[in-house]
Every structure is written in C-alpha cells, then in structure tokens.
Target: FAD/NAD(P)-binding domain-containing protein
Amino acid sequence: MSENILIIGASFAGIGAAHYALKHVVPALPKTDGKTYTVTLVNPSKDFFWRIAAPRAVVSKTLMPASKILYPIEPGFKSYGKSFNFVLGTATSVDSAAQSVSITTASGEQQQIPYTALIIATGMATHSPLFTQTTDAASLTSSYDAFQKLLPSAKTIVIGGAGPVGVETAGEIAEALNGKPGLFASAPKNPKAKVTLVSAEKKMLPVLRESISQKADKYLKRLGVDIAYSTRVVSATAGPDGSKTKVELSDGKTIDADIYLDCTGGDPQTSWLPPSWLNERGKVAADPKTLRVPAAGPRVYVIGDAGSYTRGGVIDMGLALPVALTNLKIDLTAHISGKAATSERHYTADTKESQVCPIGTSKGVGAFGGRELPSIMVWMIKGRDYLVGQMAQKTVDGGQWLKETKYEPQTLKAAPQTAGLSSG
Model:
C-alpha cells in the first residue's frame, strides 16, 4: 500500500517541502507490511520562477534573461525515482473527509489525488502579473515582452507600493531610463522619464529602520525617482485607447501615467480551500507553533506566504519548512504505527531586522540579523544578480536541504490531532 504526501504549489515553499520530505521524511517512515511512500507535487507550471529577480527581469532581458529566472522542475527530482510524482495542474477543491484534492490538469482533465498528508504551499498572487507566475512560463514571458515594449518610450511611470518589490522595481526602471547619476550628483542631469513611487507609510521599506529608509530615498532620488509618502493609490484606470493610465492618489492629485505598476502586495491563492480553513484575510489559519491546519483534520500543514503564521518572505519560509515537515514525519509515523505521538516541533519567527534591497545595479540598502549592511555588501549579496548564481539552481535541486535541521522536541501533553489519527 502506498501513502501519498501531497504538496500543492511549487514555488520556494513547495519545492523545498518536496525535497525535504524525500530526503528526510520518507526514509524515516515505517516500512511495515510492504508500505511505500510517494511525494506528489502539483503546480500549474512545469518551471520554477525565481521571483526574487523579477524587478530586474521586468526591465531587461539583457540584464536578467529568462534562463536565469525560469528553471524546469522535474529534472531536479530525478534522483528520487518513483518516490516522486509531478502533476502539471491546478488545485480546484479539497475533500477533507475523503482526503483528496481535485486537480484540473494542463490538458483540462479532472483528477482526484488522494493524500495521507497534505502540504498547502500555494503562496500569494501579486496584483501585477509581472511578479508572480500564476499559470505557466509562457504567460509570464508574454507579460514581460509586452511591458518591455512599452518601457523605452514611457515618460511617466507610477509605482504603487514602497515595500522591497516596489523600491527595487523603481530603482531598476529609473536607472534603465535615466541612466546612472554622476559621482556626486543628487539627481539625473537630463532625465528621460519621471518615476513616482507611492508609499502608504511615512517611510519606505517598513521592515527597516528610519535611517536605512532615508538612504534608500537618497539612492532613488539620484536615479530620478520622486517619492510620495503617506499617500495611497485610490484608483488606476486605463484610458480607452490604452495609451495612458489615470492614477488617482489619496492626496487628491492625479497622474496620467504611461505605465502604472501595482506593487502593493498580493492575495493568498487559497480560493480552492474551504472557507472554514481560512482566516479573515483569506490566509490558511495555521497553528502558529506547529503549522498544522486544525480545521482541516489530521496531517494537513501550510508553509509560506499563504499561511496565517508568517509575515512573509523566503527567509521566514526557510525557518518554517523544517518545522512543518518534522511534524508531518511525527504525525505520519504515528498514523502508520497506531501509536500516539509524544513530541512535536515548534516554529519561532525571527523578528530581527532582516531585509536586503538593491537599488539599481550598483547601490542598495538593508540589514541582516539586526545589523545594517553597507551598500557594497548589499550589492555583493543580492544586487549583482538577485541571488541567481548563489541559490537559484540549488533551490530547484534541493541543495539547501541536504541536511536535516536540528531542533529541541517539545513534549506533548495531549496529541493535537488524535481525531482520525488512524483513518485515511
């Protein structure tokens, strides 16, 4: 009999969970009665999108070609043989009683995939299609082609949202259009375009301290970016001929933009899940310590931006993934053996100031572990190629999960999912 660990979503959380499960969970599970285990990964694209590099990829195929942001998923799992199964499709619903997920494949076929354990890793869909791969690679590259066709002639660009994506994108666009400033220049001498970054807060990059945000302000202004603080985009309406977008701001001003980019965040991709599994923001309501989903029944977990436990980001996902997978191993072992679990692993968020934000191709701001990073270090860490050389292929191949992370087991006073523990 085969037990299936089903993972929905193959961005950072889903790819990592699949590798971690195959390397550290499946080998440790009971093999009694000829029992076998399979890890099934479901995703609407056959390629993994290195979305960290999207701000530069949006602007230039020369600086960031498709080969550096799109990676075939299946080759990275070849070494696992029949223990791994990839399904090209989209989850449409889940039946917790039957422990199965309904999938619509890329060819339009309807499938029911059973699970013994389910990992939800569907993440967030950004408001702009340029920063998320919600379908396939062809759709993403088509969006890039259309944007890059418009960009060279654009004279007025408005970017809504001054988090890292908005700031990085503003820097990349302004440098591409206005060029690098002179050594001591405070602004471009002859800017070709006016780039406006709209920040809802009184400073950009809310995770970082005021002084670092002020440095980001200086670097952006040197590239020709104006920043509107304590201001929101109320509406953005494309003209009838599609040539201009009317952007209305909360301060009463209106900008007729050649390009408007919404970098204000995104929405959790959870519409396929029962409302009872979600919180008021549409995120999966997780136990903040174990990352189990209490409303979903036994052996259901959430990792990444779709979960209620996280403030988001790849760094936090890296902390959470081993927690969810360790608890999956504990729960699945108890399910197979019929013996109640006696321990579990707990997640603790790292709340230290950590964020690295390139601004153009040579500057940047950031902090790590509560310590400010100089601009040259931001460039060395991320600004050169948005971590492509250091991490992209390793992420697809599972290289960062070669070793199982250590932890201190937490003793259970009562099994958290005794209901239905031996069912399914």
About this structure: The chain has two domains: 2-132+269-411, 154-262. The chain has a mean pLDDT of 94.
